[in-house]
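#lab-general

N.A. 3:47 PM
ok so I finally got the sequence cleaned up, no stray characters, all 380 residues accounted for. can someone with queue access submit it? mine expired

B.Y. 3:52 PM
send it over

N.A. 3:53 PM
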Amino acid sequence: MRGGWSSRVAFIVALVASAVGLGNIWRFPYLLLDFGGAFFVFYVALAFVLGVPLIYIELSLAERFREPLRDLFNKKLSIKHLYLPSAILIFTISSYYSVVTAKALTSALSFLALPFLDVLAWLFVWSLGIYALFKGISAIEKLNDVFMGLLIILLLYLFFSTVDFGKLPALWQLKAVQNHSLLETFLVAISQVLFSLSVGAGMTYTYAGYMHKRFNPWHIAFIVALADTTIAVLSAFVVFSFVGNSTGVFVAFSALSKALMSAGGLPLLFLFFLALFSAGITSFVAELKLVKDNLTTKGVFLSLFVSLLTFIIGSKAVEFLDKDIVGNAFLPLMLVNMGVFIYLLYFHKGAKGKASKSITSRRSRKETKPRVAKKRRKKK
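B.Y. 4:20 PM
back already:
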């Protein structure tokens, strides 16, 4: 049996760590600043109305079919290699996600004024990711414990020490740019929910496949959605406290760096970007795990190469990959994937309770062995 999570708590932390990332602290605030209060309402509602059921579906599917997404799709679907588009999309995300995570670490350590600090940060991100990936689930679990704990502590400190609670209602006064229709805002909110909660791409499915103990999918899905949404909202308020109405894909690095320096100096800047790095590294490792399980080790090192090119080109490459590629392809691909997940879980031939490799069936076989042994003893 392949290695798995040591406990249900470790499994929940892993799912939250996979979901909570740069999408919460970096992507959510700049989208909220761009699309306004309507986006906030849509996002929070959809996180529970849409996000929780979708997480449940992936968790239930993983509990039933204990195999990589690639094998599941190829064995159960008549169309081969249908897993490739989503795997390639996560491959693309990991390629620029690593650059943004390295940027957060560079910003946190900017006071060191080291030569080639940005290069060292990028190398550290990839070294940490590859180490955790090839050391297995136990290493990923330890990394999650350290950086998720650090993220929560830092974010709570930043929230209570920097946010002016008297200005919190101003969130509802944020107005979307006039060229954004309500429908566009709604679709962007759906995309962000899927992006932030890591549903549809198979990351939740991949991590759940390493959970060898029984669990309640509804319970875990709600915890993940609640934790992810709470951290996104807290992060947005922290960002709003400094950047005002500044917009752009790098809002957390440009205007925010200057604002943090003027408000609290180097300590505050260090704490915020360390929190951002902590959020990014756990999600990055989850992305690499999916790439390795479905595109093999070659996919991981190809992602490293693309990441290097993105790092060299800079912010324009990151913005192109995030907005033009992922922003346009993520929603339709994830919806297609969720359609496949629903089909496999509820409508595929033998979908109802015929997973011989499931946890329940394994346990039932174990439980019958002692009874058989007792009958044999009686005959003797």
